[in-house]
Amino acid sequence: MKLRDRIVITGVGLTCPIGNSLPEFRANLLEGRSGVGPFETRYIGQVLAGVCNYDELKYQKRKEVRRGTRAGSISIFCANEAVRDAGLDWSTVRKDRVGVYIGITEHGNVETENEIFEISKYNYDTAFWSHHHNPRTVANSPAGEVTLSLGISGPHYTIGAACAAGNIGFIQGTQMLRLDEVDMAIVGGVSESIHTFGIFASFKSQGALASHDEPTKASRPFDQARNGIVVAEGGCLCVLERLTDAQRRGAKIYGEIAGYAINSDASDFVLPNSGRQGECMKQALVRAGISPRDVDILSSHATATEQGDVEECLAIKEVFGNHERLAVNNTKSFIGHAMGAAGALELLGNVPAFQDGLAHATINLDNLDPACDCGAPQIVANRPRSMGQVNYILNNSFGMLGINSVLIVKRFTE
Question: Which single residue of 62, 114, 239, 259 has CA 20 to 30 Å from 284?
């Protein structure tokens, strides 16, 4: 690979139910601290959810928060934090050469539900419908709000890819840098999903909404007692640069994009396909130029649904065979399923392993479902595992309509 084609992560900004920075997030992952709690939602009442608690006025005025969207607010916070973390002199950056590529699961449902609820108070008189509705609900809204906040005049768009979207934000940014369309990319994923009652109602009607007397124990992927998904909000955006540019300015480097793949199940609206998931992992490994045995940590997608967890474990077993060193972990057990943000948050929660040599655990894994036994690759249960040197992290993110994404990041070396 040409030096100019090597793409590295140089800045991280995030908010999730257990932290508003990578150090805070990582510390809580290693401590085993859950961020799931009770949450009131319209028409349904109390549910369990992962809720963010960040300073939305750090980079926005109150009027801007009111005019925009929750997904946009999360994006603005994460993008500004990433730019700051990257150590950029933003005033000297060519804004027309910066691209913004943000993965989302869905967008516009929150605003539409809210507007319909408001006009219901006035006998559905649309004279009371907000004139801000259209810019709030267009699909490019979160990425567009970032460009307004940071004065970016390069390309921007959001990538609708269900729960595979966080990975795909990284993949799109990597491709655009290699095509020389941009010199810097702000990438990742965001989700405002907990603010739409429809997502809770739909999972509930499917029998896929998690419940537990102790909220922090509700999200339990791979566990025999799992009973569904905990919905979460959040965001994670990163600065990607070509290695040559990052080195020129002396940037710190979190890791290097090694390989990636996207494919489709082409088999069902919601039910996963282990064969296609396995093919996606294999393709990413080929692109990275490595073998399954080179991977140290596999960040799983598992959402704590019965079939979803099993199908992914079948794929892992088929691809990685008897790779005894491989540590399989899961971040949703801590924060719930952050939908479009999930892949990005789960990847970055693991990236510090390049420095500390630890694979964070899957919490709430008290009794492994025998159908989720991956064989020699062992799921890291309830306490971190010391790995020694970590060189490669593989991140799985899969979504409805059978979209699969896999991203591999490696330890940066000269």
Answer: 239
